[in-house]
Each structure stands twice: as structure tokens, then as C-alpha cells.
């Protein structure tokens, strides 16, 4: 490893060991196993729908707003 940490560095390293506990580091990813794939799929759907609406946009009809 690198140079020795000394008493202060060793104290803080031991104080921060709880942050690397497996129950805390991977908890969210294990609780939502398919969230990443679902967000990517939803994003592709939204972009696809926006592109479809731009390509096949219909002009607004004025038949019901102003009867002549």
C-alpha cells in the first residue's frame, strides 16, 4: 500500500468503515432490480412518441371552434 496513515488517518479510516458495509452499499440496487432497464425503456418510448408525433402531426381542425 502507500505510506502509513498515522494515528489520525487510521482513526478516520476505522470511523468510515461502516460506509462500505455490503448492506448499505448495494441496498438500493437490490431493492429495485429492474429500475435501470425500465427507465431506459421508458426514455426510448418517450423519445419515439415525440418523434412519431412530429412526423405525423395533423393540423388542428377549426370545424368545431368557429361554426360558419
Give an overview of the whole structure.
This protein has 68 residues and is mainly α. 59% of the residues lie in helices and 0% in strands. The protein has 4 helices and no strands. The protein has helices at 6-15, 22-25, 27-31, 35-55. The longest helix is centred in the middle third of the chain and has 21 residues, at 35-55. The model has no long low-confidence stretch (mean pLDDT 77).
Keywords:
68 residues; mainly alpha; 59% helix
Summarize the structure.
With 68 residues, the protein is mainly alpha-helical. It has helices at 6-15, 22-25, 27-31, 35-55.
Per-chain topology:
Blueprint: H1 6-15, H2 22-25, H3 27-31, H4 35-55
Oligomer designation: single chain
Number of helices in the DSSP assignment: 4
Radius of gyration: 28 Å
Number of strands: 0
- Residue-averaged pLDDT, rounded? 77
- Overall geometric form: rod-shaped
Please indicate the percent range of residues in DSSP E strands (runs of 2 or more). under 5%
Termini separation: 86 Å
Structural class: mainly alpha
| Sequence stretches where pLDDT stays below 50 over 5 or more residues | none
How do the helices and strands follow one another from N- to C-terminus? HHHH
* Biggest sheet statistics: none
The helix content, as a percent range, equals: 55-70%
